[in-house]
């Protein structure tokens, strides 16, 4: 099948975020701290950053979680519903922005669980949409026949009737590693059904994406064909709003889902079926706990603990520090023990007291205050 050779091969394969993390060689020769009885999950947007700007003393706060040699002292992860770039790229970006050494294993994005669908779609034609490079993200996870929705739409003449008015998209329909026109593979895409669609990150061109996704989903995977069985649709998250650089919250992936669902249900005889990942789903917190255990075992002194595995011990407390009550706090509440929720006032939540619908265990102004509280409570 020719299609197989089209799709991008990530030069970074192997940087899997859920792979067992090995600390840098230099850190393994340092004296290691004892195993931590607690861990921390930080949301990013509205807690650590607004856009690309650090907020709430985040850089100073995170530095306190490392020892004098820059070795991780307290296991922590970033648990974000954002994404659009591979975990290793996000880790590098966060390291530069925050001035601390973040490993890919510490970055859990909304789309990270998509890798668990690899067995089902590894060699199937799939379409990925969203800001950044959604197809590269999926390729990095191992999917071999993934096209961005930009690339996919470019195969179908006139699929977007207003494309000529979108000067910003006309020159950039090819992905980073492949170009359908150059590889003369349009005919394959035009005859093969899409097996699944993935909303990897916040869509950029809502109108075009709603149109093309409706075409894919109601036709059974091949735009222009008559109605067919809807292929599976996966969203990386379902946040209605999130805190970006603008003072007021911005519409998130959940808002896009509402728009797509509303339109689809008006033009199709079956309601839209979909699966949403990301916070507040409890399995996201379970996965974060597993990763925190692995981080803790990778960095702590395990002398005399040879039989310790990531599953064989538990934290006494895991802290979720977030700004969005309906996402971060609700998720931590649903996950239950040992999660303890801390709500900051630097993002979506701006109230004086506590959120009424999803009250946190603690409300603070900033992430720096949250870390202060955690370290003094844990006696660190
Ligand atoms: Mg947030």
From TrEMBL:
Family matches, as InterPro entries: CDP-alcohol_PTase-I, HAD-like_sf, HAD-SF_hydro_IIA, HAD-SF_hydro_IIA_CECR5, HAD_sf
Transmembrane stretches, start-end: none
Domain of life from the UniProt record: Eukaryota
One Pfam family from the record: Hydrolase_like
SUPFAM superfamilies, A to Z: HAD-like (SSF56784)
Record-linked NCBIfam families: CECR5 (TIGR01456), HAD-SF-IIA (TIGR01460)
Protein name listed in UniProt: Hydrolase family protein / HAD-superfamily protein
Species classification: Eukaryota, Viridiplantae, Streptophyta, Embryophyta, Tracheophyta
């Amino acid at each position: 099948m020719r299609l197989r050779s089209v799709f991008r091969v990530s030069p970074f394969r192997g940087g899997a975020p859920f792979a067992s993390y090995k600390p840098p060689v230099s850190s393994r020769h340092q004296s290691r701290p004892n195993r931590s009885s607690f861990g921390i999950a930080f949301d990013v947007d509205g807690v650590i950053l607004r856009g690309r700007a650090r907020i709430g003393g985040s850089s100073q706060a995170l530095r306190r979680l490392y020892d004098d040699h820059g070795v991780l002292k307290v296991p922590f992860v970033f648990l974000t519903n954002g994404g659009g770039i591979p975990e290793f790229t996000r880790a590098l970006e966060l390291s530069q922005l925050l001035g601390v050494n973040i490993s890919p294993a510490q970055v859990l994005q909304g789309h990270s669980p998509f890798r668990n669908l690899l067995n089902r779609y590894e060699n199937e034609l799939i379409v990925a949409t969203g800001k950044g490079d959604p197809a590269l993200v999926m390729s990095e996870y191992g999917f071999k026949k993934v096209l961005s929705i930009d690339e996919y739409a470019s195969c179908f003449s006139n699929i977007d009737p207003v494309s000529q008015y979108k000067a910003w998209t006309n020159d950039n329909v090819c992905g980073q590693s492949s170009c359908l026109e150059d590889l003369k593979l349009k005919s394959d895409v035009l005859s093969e059904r899409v097996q699944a669609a993935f909303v990897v990150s916040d869509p950029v061109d809502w109108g075009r994406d709603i149109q093309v996704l409706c075409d894919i989903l109601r036709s059974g995977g091949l735009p222009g064909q008559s109605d067919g069985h809807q292929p599976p649709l996966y969203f990386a998250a379902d946040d209605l709003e999130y805190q970006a650089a603008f003072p007021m919250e911005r519409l998130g992936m959940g808002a896009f889902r509402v728009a797509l669902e509303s339109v689809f249900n008006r033009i199709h005889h079956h309601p839209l079926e979909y699966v949403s990942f990301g916070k507040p789903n409890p399995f996201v917190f379970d996965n974060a706990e597993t990763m925190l255990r692995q981080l803790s075992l990778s960095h702590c002194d395990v002398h005399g603990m040879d039989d310790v595995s990531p599953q064989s011990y538990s934290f006494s407390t895991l802290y979720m520090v977030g700004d969005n009550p309906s996402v971060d706090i609700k998720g931590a509440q649903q996950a239950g023990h040992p999660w303890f929720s801390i709500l900051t006032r630097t993002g979506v939540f701006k109230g004086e007291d506590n959120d009424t619908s999803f009250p946190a265990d603690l409300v603070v102004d900033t992430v720096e205050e949250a870390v202060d509280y955690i370290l003094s409570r844990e006696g660190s």
